[in-house]
Amino acid sequence: MPLGNIAKQIAQQAIGNQVKEVLAGPETQAPGNIPAGHEAENISGVILAELQAMQRAAKENEELVILLHNGIETLRVLEVFVPSPDVIVLAGLDAEKNVTRVVSSATALQLTCKVRKLEPEAKATAVRFLLPKPKAK
Q1: Residues with Cβ within 8 Å of residue 107, at least 6 apart in sequence
Q2: Do the Cβ atoms of 111 and 67 come closer than 8 Å?
Q3: Of 7, 13, 90, 124, which one has the greatest count of Cβ atoms within 10 A?
């Protein structure tokens, strides 16, 4: 098993429970207040899970490219931060290589994702996924 796969597995196990806790949604929603069959959907959690799954599925000679088209600008997303279930913060580079951040409602976010083949000897640029630190109890 390649060393990269082992590192990915260790990282997934280390942050797996933390990801579930953070993306579970607001704790103020009592289960009895949600009508049967209409559970509140955590949009940012779904988006984050899809992006991570696409990145994990990329082969060794491929990389996931996430783009945000915002008016006339296109941002290559290099970092995804989920501070709350309703907000996503994206950081990356614009066409002029300026560091750019976009704060968006999870429901309004539209991303273009593609898997790109790498040139021989090139290394993939992995997208970083960040979660807030859990609150002390």
Answers
A1: 43, 86
A2: yes
A3: 90
Q: How far apart are CA 80 and CA 106, in angstroms?
A: 12
Q: Which residues of the chain have pLDDT under 50?
A: 14, 17-38
pLDDT of residue 70: 86
Lookup result for tokens 């002390």: 136
